[in-house]
Amino acid sequence: MSGLIIDIAGLSLTDEDKEVLQHTDVKGLILFSRNYASPQQLRQLIDEIRTLRGTNFLITVDHEGGRVQRFREGFSALPPMAALAERWGGNTEQAKQDAYDLGWLMAAELRMFDIDLSYAPVLDLMGESTVIGNRAFSAHPLQVEQLASAFMQGMAAAGMRCVGKHFPGHGTVVADSHIDIPIDDRSFASIQHHDLTPFKALASRLDAVMPAHVIYSEVDPLPAGFSPFWLQQVLRQECQFEGVIISDDLLMEGARVVGDVPARARAAYEAGAELLLVCNNRKAAMGVLELAPAPLARRDAAALLFGKAFQEDLAQKQQSLATLAQYSEKV
After folding, report:
1. Could you confirm whether 23 is annotated as catalytic?
2. Which of 7, 17, 124, 248 is flagged as catalytic?
3. Active-site choice (25, 178, 220, 313)
4. Distance (Å, rounded) from C-alpha 264 to C-alpha 289?
């Protein structure tokens, strides 16, 4: 099965890591907090990966800001995205400028280390979900669209692609798909006219989309990331999305309803996912790599997400740091 993004356990590559990362079906790596000790160590790790696999290998991280920021020491402490709307209230233009500045800063700091991609922005609406919570820009679809759009523009200016998540929306369901199987029993029309609207509005500008491990029971018995209806009919056709579809981690509890990990990989791929995240279980990742080759020829999705050339913009850096200083919440 091609198109895996896997993880490593430590601060440097083991011999086993080196062997697995050179597998032709491993297209990328996701880094976690356990892989970070200091800027110097991170640079050495990235250099080690690049020496092994070259520039045509996708290095990624979840680095949104707020609760979800994998690297701390030596990196700017970004606020949760909800702080933008909370700070400025009805002044959307100022909030959008701040979103641009913070998107640039997040991406620039990662691109300086030759990290290609952060899984951002969150396009979920703020609602009952505690796992989303203040990771969302707002509870209002239009505000999410506007602030996420500005954040994406900042990312792009720093040379980073963007990933909208968690399609078609995780913010309204209470259960956490990391540890539970969330079920959203709203009608398709309700989801379509509420949670789905930021994804649809931004679809032409999103480089990638990550579906939710949520079952929308009135629409499809399968979680969205394994559903041809959600990925093909809604995302590809209705939203006219042409970017890359990246599965959320196939080891999450919300994916368990599909079967064992190889079954999840097959189902996600057949539904339309192009890159598959398999994290925190090397044995499971190896099981997916041992599957028969995917039956359909697909484009090189990872290549569409490589970072662009980064040139430090001192004026923008000063502006972004000044913007950051206005947010008093420490994370």
Report:
1. no
2. 248
3. 178
4. 13
Nearest to 59, CA basis, from 46, 74, 40: 46
Token pair in block for residue 14: 């083991």
> How far is 160 from 111, CA to CA, in rounded Å?
7
Q: What is the DSSP string of 164-208?
A: EEEET--TT--S-TTTS--EE---HHHHHTTTTHHHHHHGGG-SE
Query: Rounded distance, CA 139 to CA 143, Å?
Result: 8
DSSP 294: P
Handedness of CA 250, 255, 260, 266 (dihedral sign): negative
The model's pLDDT over 98-156, given as tens digits with 9 standing for 90+, comes to 999 999 999 999 999 999 999 999 999 999 888 899 999 999 999 999 999 999 999 99
**330, 78 Cβ separation under 8 angstroms:** no
How does pLDDT run across 165-195, given as a tens digit for each residue?
Answer: 999 999 988 766 666 788 999 999 999 999 9
In contact, 85 and 143? CB cutoff 8 Å: yes
Active site includes 249? Answer: no
**Please, what's the b/e burial string for 133-171 (b: 16 or more CB within 10 A of its CB; e: otherwise)?**
bbbbbbebbebbbbbbbbbbbbbbbbbbbbbbbbbbbbb
Give yes or no for a contact between 34 and 9, defined as CB atoms under 8 angstroms apart.
Answer: yes
